[in-house]
Write a structure and sequence with these properties.
Number of strands of chain B: 6
Largest interface: A-B, 54 and 37 residues
Order of helices and strands of chain B: EHEHEEEE
Strand content of chain B: 25-35%
Structural class of chain B: alpha+beta
Helix content of chain B: 10-25%
Number of strands of chain A: 10
Shape of chain A: globular
Shape of chain B: globular
Largest sheet of chain B: 6 strands, antiparallel
Helix content of chain A: 25-40%
Oligomer: heterodimer
Radius of gyration of chain B: 14 Å
Chain lengths: ~200, ~120
């Protein structure tokens, strides 16, 4: 795998760049975030990526293992959302940081919408340097694996998808000089259903 | 504001599946303690307000446009003599299941007053 002007050059990757999901320059790649679409086909995801303001990730892996590049790897996309606090989850915050986070989670003003707390905590975390925080839209690539959410649980990836994930992640880790510690499942990073990508391995 | 997507934003074309009457909260809890919404509860009246405001969304929209928070309130309603179950989450989503039917999803972007 090689990269030229943000495009991956490899016979295993099909170009389906969707400009509508790109949000300016991605200056650094510190991590990869694994997603599942919630839908049952790549076609529906690709169709949605054509809509102005659509959200999406950099790669999409179809049920037959086909890998689509849907955004340049030097462009930011909105695929992560609000991030959780890594040190809070791991109980490793410094005393000052713990106090700052506690102020967000338990404000003196009694009535603060949860959505506001989530956003404030994410903004607080985003000011930290990776890997003291989880990856954000501004320093990570996203890989979407087609997978439905029938019955309230994400389906397992197909064997073809599993093979493609392993290949793509290995190639991207080498390209961006990352390690497997820099690959995350979406629910680890932000507020998503626990089963998303739970059976996607790399 | 950060945005997210694991999904294409799609139009939800399901009919409104929100329960319509006899709405009762039966319990509340958290998937795992996070501090972000622990203690979330709703009254029967608040749950009714949520269902009045919420709209049907696809699983893709729920994932793309909402935070799936770990705190929830469970409840039931009767509709046409049938007992529906539902779970409202503190991020403004709900999972609604009719008797013997498939789970559908609701979302509300103007319900912050209920989720605090």
């Amino acid at each position: 795998m090689t990269e030229s002007k943000g495009k991956i050059i490899d016979g295993k990757v099909t170009q389906k760049i969707a400009p509508a999901i790109e949000r300016g320059a991605l200056d650094a790649v510190h991590a990869i975030v694994m997603h599942q679409t919630g839908g049952s086909s790549a076609e529906s995801t690709l169709a949605s990526y054509g809509h102005k303001g659509a959200n999406g990730a950099h790669f999409l892996i179809d049920t037959d293992g086909t890998i689509y590049q849907t955004a340049h790897v030097d462009k930011r996309t909105h695929h992560v959302g609000n991030i959780q606090s890594r040190c809070h989850n791991l109980k490793s915050c410094s005393p000052d940081d713990a106090t700052a986070i506690d102020t967000i989670l338990h404000p003196k003003k009694k009535k603060v919408p949860y959505s506001t707390k989530v956003r404030q905590l994410s903004d607080h975390e985003a000011k930290k340097a990776y890997p003291k925080r989880y990856p954000t839209n501004s320093d990570s690539l996203g890989i979407e694996v087609v997978g439905s959410f029938d019955g309230g649980i994400y389906e397992d990836p197909t064997s073809d998808q599993a093979d493609s994930v392993k290949w793509l992640v290995a190639e991207l880790l080498a390209l961006f000089k990352l390690t497997t510690d820099d690959v995350y499942r979406h629910p680890t990073v932000s507020y998503k259903h626990a089963s998303e990508a739970s059976n996607v391995t790399w | 504001m950060l945005a997210t997507s694991c999904s294409p934003p799609q139009s939800a074309n399901q009919s409104q599946p929100a329960p319509a009457d006899a709405i009762h909260v039966t319990g509340h809890g958290v998937d795992q303690a996070s501090g972000i919404c622990d203690g979330f509860t709703l009254t029967d009246a608040q749950a009714q307000q949520f269902f009045a405001k919420a709209t049907a969304i696809t699983p893709e929209q729920m994932h793309a446009d909402y935070d799936y928070l770990p705190c929830w309130v469970d409840g039931t309603t009767t509709r046409g003599g049938a007992r529906w179950t539902w779970r409202i989450r503190a991020g403004g989503t709900a999972e609604v299941t009719p008797p013997g039917g498939q789970m559908t999803f609701l979302g509300c972007k103007s319900c912050d007053d209920l989720f605090q």
